[in-house]
Amino acid sequence: MTTLYSEQHEDRVDGPDRLPPGQRLTEQWPVLTYGATPQVEQGDFSLRIWGEVEEEVEFDWEQFLALGVEERTNDIHCVTHWSRYDNHWEGVLMETLLAQVQLKPGAASVMFHSFGGYTTNVALEDLRSDDHAMLAFSHDGEPIAPEHGGPVRGVVPSLYFWKSAKWVNGMEILPMDRPGFWEMYGYHLRGDPWTEERYS
Fold first, then answer.
1. Would you say residue 103 lies in a domain?
2. What is the total count of domains within the chain?
3. What sign does the CA torsion over 111, 125, 91, 82 have?
């Protein structure tokens, strides 16, 4: 199923209301990475979900795809002021992934873990309210390249793009929001582009 993000944000479809404040449009997809780029083959991919759950789960590549692949088209907004419209993704929705575990009553946030050690936090409320949030393996009809986070990266288009972690291999369910890598260096704990939550 393909869904356009603007269907959920009718006041932000075209014109200046579609572009968050302080952003400029680009047709390119800039590569911004701290540290080396992990080279992860599909056969080496695994995704673990653990923490505030009754029982942790882990999926290899085939098991991950078998959860159900969806398509979404949306805009992305980087904290470094660029935005790119109409990105087409294929992946597994966050709501599908979260449905694979029984969350404990105190579950409040997800810390995404990546090959290479990167982490970033996203509140469960933000993941559940964004029906485009997913772990994606394809962008604009092509497998996501390693420099852009392949084989699997997060996509949370309602937040600044650093929240869409590259090279994801784990989702740690937390009882409270806790800063990830960039958040510990002064980036905002949430990262809403519409209110310019760039830095704490």
1. yes
2. 1
3. negative
Q: 12 vs 146, which has greater pLDDT?
A: 146
- The helix or strand, by DSSP H or E, that contains position 97, with its residue range, turns out to be helix 94-98
- Domain holding 166: CATH number? 3.90.420.10
Distance CA 123, CA 91 (A): 20
Note down the domain range covering 73. 21-27+44-195
CA distance 169 to 49: 9
Strand locations in the chain (E): 2-4, 24-25, 46-51, 57-60, 70-77, 82-93, 109-114, 119-123, 134-139, 142-143, 153-155, 168-174
Summarize pLDDT for 13-44 with one digit per residue, the tens. 455 589 999 999 999 999 988 888 999 999 99
200 belongs to a structural domain: no
Q: 129 falls in which pLDDT band (50, 70, 90)?
A: very high
